[in-house]
Amino acid sequence: MMNWTELNEQAKAWIKEAGENIKRSFNKTLVIQTKTNANDLVTDIDKGTEQFFIKKIKAKYPHHKILGEEGFGDDVDNMNGIVWIIDPIDGTTNFIHQQRNFAISIGIYEDGIGKIGLIYDVVHNELYHSLKGNGVYLNDLQLLPLAEVAVSEAIIGMNATWVTKNKRIDPSILSPLVSDARGTRSYGSAALEMAYIAAGRLDAYITLRLAPWDIAAGIIIVEELGGVATNLRGEPLNLLEKNTIFISKPGLHKEILAKYLKNGKW
Ligand code: 2AM
Ligand code: CA
Ligand code: CA
Ligand code: CA
Fold first, then answer.
1. Is the shortest distance between the CB of 50 and ligand 1 below 6 Å?
2. Which PROSITE patterns match (predicted)?
């Protein structure tokens, strides 16, 4: 039987160690490469951080499977057994341009059920962590269950891309929501935007295309506090595919789905 408390402590120790390694890299020259297009970047630190976790996990838990963004893990095509879903640096553009506003994101699942969620804001030394059933913590501070809020008083995490001409969504779908909400913010790290919902800094987060490693930890953390994590149709997220993303406080999720998202085709 898996000892989940021990696994949680081990994963937290490794994520802190990886964070220290990243901080030490700040005085070295970054090696930056492009992936699918000129704005899709990866650095040697993204790759090195993923490899750090894989080495540690394979040595101590050889039967666990690992799905990592940079492709050094396993070819995961199902969620059977224990699966680590790792984004070594979420917010690589911020990492390169700002040296802040990025996070390490790790979700650990057992047979598709989220068990451990860790999002580590390395530079601000904020570790959001949850062991399913035991609440969510920001470092040592326990976070409160998410309270209800109306759109008119909500701060919504959203990229300006989605209310300008783009290839995934008609800008007229989300622009009324931008008008009606108290405000919008865009942080450039999906993991941090989900962590901010847990911490009450944001009320909802909407985006059009994310991979499993962007959301694996955030889903566990937000749901543990009573938040709702779905695609833009209000359906459950699939951890083996890309999804549209709508993460929100509980009542707000219903309101936005009914008033704004029902008009979309995706
Ligand atoms: P990443 O930094 O790990 O790639 C930026 O708005 C958010 O979208 C980040 O969480 C980023 O994760 C994610 N993202 C996913 N695919 C991306 C892409 N092709 N280019 C830039 N950001 C991407
Ligand atoms: Ca990336
Ligand atoms: Ca990411
Ligand atoms: Ca990444």
1. no
2. IMP_1, IMP_2
Rounded Cα distance between 25 and 35, Å, is: 21
Ligand having the closest approach to the CA of 88 = 4
- Pocket lining: 92 vs ligand 1, CB cutoff 6 Å: yes
* pTM assigned to the model: 0.98
Tell me how far apart the alpha carbons of residues 86 and 92 are, in angstroms, rounded to a whole number. 14
Task: Please report, as a single letter, which amino acid is at residue 141.
Answer: L
The residue nearest atom 19 of ligand 1, judged by CA position, is 40
**DSSP letter (8 states) at residue 161:** G
- Superfamily per CATH, domain 4-142: Fructose-1,6-Bisphosphatase, subunit A, domain 1 (3.30.540.10)
Cα separation, 108 vs 115, whole angstroms = 6
Q: In this prediction, does ipTM exceed 0.85? A: yes
